[in-house]
């Protein structure tokens, strides 16, 4: 079991035989670059390599008309001149004598990948293919695409594997109108696409790429379009789109399989997209999708025309699929106004179809003054340089093609009573060591509750594990402490990290845990208590919210509060502490831990109560190690109180934590400075001590 990589070198055979500036970019070197990148990073070798097969005529017929398949088949025997004439009948398409063979391999690769994942031969995977597929339609080639690889794979998953809910995430920078048309009335396929749109002025210039195309008939609400109306969208915009539009719907939909139309023309440097998301962003997007469908994520290459950007982005995605910790995102994570306008309009347009969006945007609804007389929302801000990121050279994001160092140990479990029967996945280390007695005792003197033997033992283990995380030997860990000493142990952990030059520490404290009062003004610590009596923020760095009682409420809390705070803070390290009376079910704790791997580059320490079940330790170990969290169970809408709590906190915290925003700011509301320059309103983070980041040994 692992990550499948499906490929066939014959897919490099097709190429443009005449001059056509529009089609020139879809070249064989794209596949070579992606594959070379994977080899250079040592990632290809770690995958289960599968040789692509050709899709059969019957399989192509799942989506395409027999006449169209026959037409493409006949192109094998055409002369160059005839190929050029036929190509001219479609929009942005070229045929080559090898096109039929390549396109059948591309569709076959997608099918093989889905078969591997649905039969359990692989956890997840990537099909490296060309030609791409998402623009092609029942009886038409379009936009370099001949057969609709992802649509065929989805239909196959339904018909041959009996699936009922498939999510397609299309992060290519173009609208996959082909996929949209094929599934527009099908409620078993949820299609999400973001795309460069520029109010309809970008290829393929379709009205149905806009946000108001939501599907037809039974399929209404199962097409989700997020049009980008400006170029220059970056990491924060993509993340915000996932957290505030795609993921709430995806959890509610509860897919059995996730297919990704993985185009990397949405990455920085791409001539088509003109966007700014860095390759690391695709690792994060992948990680976020891996919490769905029990981790069954099948990605199929679509576009991506800047060879280095493509190669690096593919590496990042595969790294995430393999379960490695992924590099944190750099740069200020502040979504731009235009992105927020798009996100807001998706939420408004889709709200009638999705419980998870209902009543959630009340506080951030535009005030009446910003509506035009006919009641339609006015554009929030005039066009402007809101998406212009600070001048940074492209090469600094792409060069060199190597991966950041990954700790030799991904996950360690340090329990005071090592339990040999604890079901741990292979590769998880059972840590025996403890910190030196004198050191442990010195820390223990800070708190009475740490004096008793069990607490002291637990502290010694925690300190030892924590130091290995801080040294970069271990990526993530789980440790246990007696409930009576939980708060004190957490307090020591925080101080230990600060001594170790951690600049930013995100503490998610569940249940009855209070934070160290003397650190109240220390902005190196962002403290979030889940399970408090009421939603309250005594400062921008000390936040408390009740534990939501339903799955829907819990998901809104994670996607709408915890992760926006975590990504916005960009911590060096995340501490998740399950304190007394935390009230979390194991699947909830697992989801939280899994999703918190992203913001701090995989550096997560989970602190649990000694009396919690071995299942909890085991579940946390699995997700921190990269496995998918278990399903949360049936989706139940958030209660009005939970929705209120979130709205209340969002309103209070948005001025400082911009990733919480789900709508653009109204003109004149004071916060309309250009996104890239906006600095934390409470001043910069404490000055960094000189020297390398603390986790570099
Ligand atoms: C798969 C893909 C783009 C076509 C652009 C035509 N197609 N101008 O990225
Ligand atoms: Zn594209």
Automatic annotation (TrEMBL):
GO terms for biological process: epigenetic regulation of gene expression; homologous recombination; macroautophagy; negative regulation of transcription by RNA polymerase II; positive regulation of mismatch repair; spermidine deacetylation. This is Histone deacetylase 10. PANTHER family: HISTONE DEACETYLASE HDAC1-RELATED, POLYAMINE DEACETYLASE HDAC10. Residues 25-321 form the Histone deacetylase domain. It comes from the Eukaryota. One of its GO terms (cellular component) is cytosol. One of its GO terms (molecular function) is hydrolase activity. Its main location: nucleus. Pfam families: Hist_deacetyl. Residues 664-697 are annotated as: Disordered. Residues 686-697 have a biased composition (Pro residues). The keyword Lyase does not apply. It is found in: Nucleus. Belongs to the histone deacetylase family. HD type 2 subfamily.
């Amino acid at each position: 079991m692992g990550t499948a990589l499906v490929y066939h070198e014959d897919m490099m055979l097709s190429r443009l035989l005449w001059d056509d500036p529009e089609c020139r970019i879809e070249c064989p070197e794209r596949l070579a670059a992606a594959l070379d990148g994977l080899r250079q990073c040592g990632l290809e070798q770690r995958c289960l390599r599968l040789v692509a097969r050709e899709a059969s005529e019957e399989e192509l017929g799942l989506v395409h008309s027999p006449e169209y398949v026959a037409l493409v088949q006949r192109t094998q025997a055409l002369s160059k001149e005839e190929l050029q004439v036929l190509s001219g009948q479609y929009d942005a398409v070229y045929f080559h004598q090898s096109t039929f063979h390549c396109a059948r391999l591309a569709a076959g690769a997608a099918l093989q990948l889905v078969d591997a994942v649905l039969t359990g031969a692989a956890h997840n995977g990537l099909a490296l293919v060309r030609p791409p597929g998402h623009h092609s339609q029942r009886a038409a080639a379009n936009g370099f695409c001949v057969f609709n690889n992802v649509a065929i794979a989805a239909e196959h998953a339904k018909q041959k594997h009996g699936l009922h809910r498939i999510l397609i995430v299309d992060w290519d920078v173009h609208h996959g109108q082909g996929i949209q048309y094929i599934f527009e009335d099908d409620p078993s396929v949820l299609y999400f696409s973001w795309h460069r749109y520029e109010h309809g002025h970008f290829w393929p210039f379709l009205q149905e790429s806009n946000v108001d195309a939501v599907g037809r008939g039974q399929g209404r609400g199962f097409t989700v379009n997020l049009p980008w109306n400006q170029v220059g969208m970056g990491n924060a915009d993509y993340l915000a789109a996932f957290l505030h539009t795609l993921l709430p719907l995806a959890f509610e939909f509860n897919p059995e399989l996730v297919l990704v139309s993985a185009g990397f023309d949405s990455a920085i440097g791409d001539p088509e997209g003109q966007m700014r998301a860095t390759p690391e962003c695709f690792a994060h997007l992948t990680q976020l999708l891996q919490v769905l469908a029990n981790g069954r994520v099948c990605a199929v290459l679509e576009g991506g025309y800047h060879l280095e950007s493509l190669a690096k982005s593919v590496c990042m995605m595969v790294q995430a699929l393999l379960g490695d910790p992924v590099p944190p995102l750099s740069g200020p994570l502040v979504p731009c106004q235009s992105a927020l306008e798009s996100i807001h309009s998706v939420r408004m347009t889709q709200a009638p179809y999705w419980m998870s969006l209902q009543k959630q945007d009340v506080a951030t609804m535009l005030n009446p003054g910003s509506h035009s007389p006919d009641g339609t929302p006015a554009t929030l801000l005039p066009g402007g340089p809101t998406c212009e990121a600070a001048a940074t050279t492209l090469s600094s994001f792409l060069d060199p093609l190597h991966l950041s160092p990954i700790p030799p140990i991904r996950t360690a479990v340090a329990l005071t009573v090592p339990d040999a029967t604890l079901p741990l996945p292979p590769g998880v280390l059972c840590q025996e060591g403890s910190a030196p007695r004198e050191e442990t005792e010195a820390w223990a003197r800070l708190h009475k509750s740490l004096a008793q033997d069990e607490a002291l033992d637990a502290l010694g283990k925690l300190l030892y594990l924590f130091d290995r995380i801080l040294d970069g030997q271990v990526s993530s860990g789980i440790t246990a402490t007696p409930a009576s000493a939980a708060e004190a142990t957490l307090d020591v952990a925080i101080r230990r990290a600060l001594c170790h030059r951690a600049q930013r520490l995100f503490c998610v404290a569940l249940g009855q845990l209070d934070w160290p009062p003397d650190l109240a003004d220390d902005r190196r610590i962002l403290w979030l208590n889940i399970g408090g009596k009421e939603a309250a923020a005594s400062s921008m760095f000390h936040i408390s919210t009740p534990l939501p009682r339903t799955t829907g409420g819990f998901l809104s809390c994670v996607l709408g509060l915890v992760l926006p705070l975590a990504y916005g803070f960009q911590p060096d390290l995340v501490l998740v502490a399950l304190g007394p009376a935390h009230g979390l079910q194991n699947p909830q704790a697992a989801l939280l831990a899994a999703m918190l791997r992203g913001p701090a580059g995989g550096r997560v320490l989970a602190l649990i109560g000694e009396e919690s079940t071995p299942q909890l330790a085991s579940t946390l170990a699995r997700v921190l190690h990269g496995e998918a969290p278990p399903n949360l169970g049936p989706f139940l809408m958030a209660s009005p109180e939970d929705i209120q709590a979130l709205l209340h906190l969002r309103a209070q915290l948005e001025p400082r934590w911009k990733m919480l925003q789900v709508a653009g700011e109204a003109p004149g509301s004071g916060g309309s400075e250009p996104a890239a320059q906006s600095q934390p309103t409470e001043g910069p983070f404490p000055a960094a001590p000189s020297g390398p980041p603390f986790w570099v040994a």
